[in-house]
Amino acid sequence: MRWENLFDDLENQLASELENEVDLRVEDERLRLAKLTLLDRLVALSAVDPTSSVRLVLTDGSRLSLTPSLFGADWCAGLSPGPGLRESFCIVPLEAVSGVALSPDQIAASLTPSGDATAASPPSRGLRLGSILRDLCRRRENVEIVGTSDRLFGTIDRVGDDHFDLAIHELGTSRQQAKVSEIRLVPVAQLLFVRV
Question: How far is CA 33 from the centre of its chain?
Answer without folding.
Answer: 17
